[in-house]
Structure formats: C-alpha cells, structure tokens
Amino acid sequence: MPNQKILYVTTELYPYQEDSNIATMVSKMALKMHQGGNDVRVFMPRFGQISERKFQLHEVIRLSGMNIIINDLDQPLIIKVASLPGERLQVYFIDNEEYFKRKQFYIDDDGKPFDDNDERAIFFARGVIETIKKLNWVPDVIHLNGWMASFIPVYLKTFYKNDSYFKDSKIVLSVYNEEDLPLSSSIEEKMKFDNITALDAFKKPSFQQFVIDSMDLVDVVLKGDEFLQDELKDAFDKTATTKSEYIDAVSINNLY
C-alpha cells in the first residue's frame, strides 16, 4: 500500500550507529517503505558521535528556534537534517547543546548513567512532536524504536491529549532487548510539570520501565527482537494492546 506517510522515531540508525539491531532494523524498514513509494521521514537524537561533516548534516533554520521547557528551564530546540547516504530519504536530528553534544550515549567515562537521561528523553519526545507539527505533515503510521521514543505515546496521551493533530495516526512500538539503565528519581517531579502523573514507571524509573508503560498506550506492539528477555517478555505477554511477533524488515509493510 504505497503513498502512506510513515514516521520512524528511533534512538539509533545505520550508518550513524553501527553493530546495533535497532540501527540496522530501522534503516532497513525505512528504506523498504521509502523505495516502495511511501513518504518516509526518520527522527533521531543528534548524539555527539555523529559527525556533521561526514554525514553532511545542516541546520534547518525554519524548524529550529523554538524552546522546550524541561523542569522549568527553557531549552532551545535545534533541528538538523541529512539524507541517508545514497538515498533521498530525509533524516531529522533533534539537537541541543546541553543534552546531545557529549560523545557518549547514556553513561559517562566511569560507567555511571548521566543524571539527565530523563530530561534528554523528555526533550527528544517533545522535540519530535513539535517539529512534526511545524512541518505540517501528518503521519499515517508512527513507528517507535528505542527507549527514548517510548516517551512519545506517554506525552501524546497526556500532555497533548486535547491536540487533534495526531488523532488519525496509528502508533507502532517495536520492543528490543536494550540495555536497561536507571533514570533519576526526580523524573516524576519533572513530568508533573507537564501534568503527567501516576505512571507505573515512576515507582522504579528506568529505560525499560518506560518502554513497558508505553506498551499500553500504542496501537500495536511489535517484537523488535525475535526473543524478548525477562520483564519485557512478561509485559509483552500481558499487554492488552494488539501484538505482533517479530517481522523482518522486508515484510514490515504487511503490518502497516
């Protein structure tokens, strides 16, 4: 079914990250749907390891410039864009000096998770939502990949619940066996600022707990890895959301 508008939101994408199942899978899915005649966009964080010169990233002035308030602080949103090498497929990068300039992903040189990983995820989720609205482009399918992307359905069902912009968009969540790291215990206070309360994930906040919470807030939950581990498997089995077993990238259009 060509001519669908498909938004991929991901924490990783090949070739910007390599040797990662998420990065490879999202790249293959996006290319498959793009080459099949669909209007495909990809959004991801602009982590410090991604070379702007090598991949020819450039800032989109008309999309940059808005501020997102995180924990009562104004954080400027910078949007950069590049084409996937060798393809006319646009990748949008959510950037901010405070959150994404550092070279490491989620842990410092001593192996300790960054204290602001929660704020980075909130900023990323809200940055994607606000930028899509500014593009005036309404996706038919929003396909979420990676723990940061799991904050998007949380925000769409709460902070943006009276906003009809995405009312006809179907949301797919791919669940992967990602590294699970704890998030700051202050995340509840920070999200309360956005009128988000009573999430199960607040009891023991971590990457995985937000993925588990978001399973109940989307239209379809899909296994991103063929076999899910431990708590992810249990949550996948228990959720009342429509479920799909692992599908390879070549067949993803059958799900859409």
Automatic annotation (TrEMBL):
Keywords: Glycosyltransferase, Transferase. This is starch synthase. Residues 5-178 form the Starch synthase catalytic domain. Its EC number is 2.4.1.21. PANTHER family: ALPHA AMYLASE DOMAIN-CONTAINING PROTEIN, GRANULE-BOUND STARCH SYNTHASE 1, CHLOROPLASTIC/AMYLOPLASTIC. It is an enzyme of class 2 (transferase). It catalyses: [(1->4)-alpha-D-glucosyl](n) + ADP-alpha-D-glucose = [(1->4)-alpha-D-glucosyl](n+1) + ADP + H(+).
